[in-house]
From TrEMBL:
Residues 64-141 form the J domain. Residues 29-53, 226-262 are annotated as: Disordered. InterPro entries: DnaJ_domain (IPR001623), J_dom_sf (IPR036869). Residues 250-262 have a biased composition (Polar residues). Coiled coil: none annotated. It comes from the Eukaryota. This is J domain-containing protein.
Length: 262
């Protein structure tokens, strides 16, 4: 009985003494593993020799065109073009010597392409002649287009300026259209004047319509001359080419005047 009691006591003591201790909720390693679960696992794309993973930068870095051309930001477009030509004379692929190795040729070609893209990303300001980034100008133009007048606002402005609802709700005599087109060409187109106002806008629309009629097919020309494209115009009518004034006009007038006189 005494031996059995000793064995039972040893069986109760040994497992507690030599058993592997389980981590509790207050164990610092278990808390650290719960707070950072990814530290206990290796990233699937990491190499076997490195335990940390750093993804590569895939976004392209846009270099400053002014730094690429080595010019200040307040330079004119002519200055930028001159700087590009100087770089092109040194690094153009055709300017490389025969003794240049392949590495030197590739480096020169890379510099030339980078400078050409830098010049293409710049535009010239019409007022000052300075260099402006093309992306900035396009963004500004897109914003101006978004801020433009709607159809209702344009109709209201056009009615206030001209007295008409819109440019397509009134009809003009063909002779009046040609007179307006000639006036617009003399006072605006030929002299490079930028007129403003509803009437000038209407004159530009009429001038465009007359020009498209002259340059278009026979139906457009008949529509402007006679007012109806389906009307038949006899030969020698208004579609006849206008004779030039001067000394040569008399030489063509006598044979034409004798037609039918017998």
């Amino acid at each position: 009985m005494r031996v059995l009691a000793v064995r039972a006591m040893m069986a109760d003591i040994v497992p507690r003494k030599y058993a592997r201790r389980r981590p509790s909720s207050f164990d610092p390693p278990s808390l650290f593993a719960a707070a950072h679960p990814h530290r206990s696992r290796r990233h699937p794309f990491s190499s076997s020799s490195s335990s940390s993973y750093r993804p590569r930068r895939t976004k392209a870095f846009a270099a400053c065109p002014f730094k690429t051309l080595n010019i200040p930001k307040d330079s004119t477009y002519a200055h930028a073009r001159k700087a590009f030509l100087e770089i092109a004379m040194r690094h153009h692929p055709d300017m490389a010597g025969k003794d240049a190795d392949e590495g030197t040729r590739d480096k020169s070609r890379e510099i030339f392409v980078r400078c050409r893209k830098a010049l293409e990303s710049l535009v010239e300001c019409e007022d000052t002649g300075l260099c402006l980034p093309r992306s900035e100008v396009e963004r500004r133009n897109a914003k101006d287009d978004d801020d433009g007048m709607s159809d209702e606002e344009f109709d209201s402005w056009f009615a206030k300026e001209t007295g008409h609802q819109n440019p397509f709700q009134f009809d003009l005599d063909p002779a009046t259209m040609r007179e307006v087109a000639d006036m617009h060409a003399d006072m605006a187109g030929s002299h490079g004047l930028d007129r403003d106002g509803g009437m000038w806008h209407l004159a530009s629309l009429i001038s465009s319509a007359v020009k498209s009629g002259k340059e278009g097919g026979a139906e457009s020309l008949l529509r402007l001359e006679a007012g109806n494209a389906n009307d038949v115009v006899e030969a020698g009518g208004k579609l006849e080419r206008r004779r030039k004034r001067g000394g040569r006009a008399s030489s063509y007038s006598s044979p034409r005047s004798t037609i039918g006189r017998r």
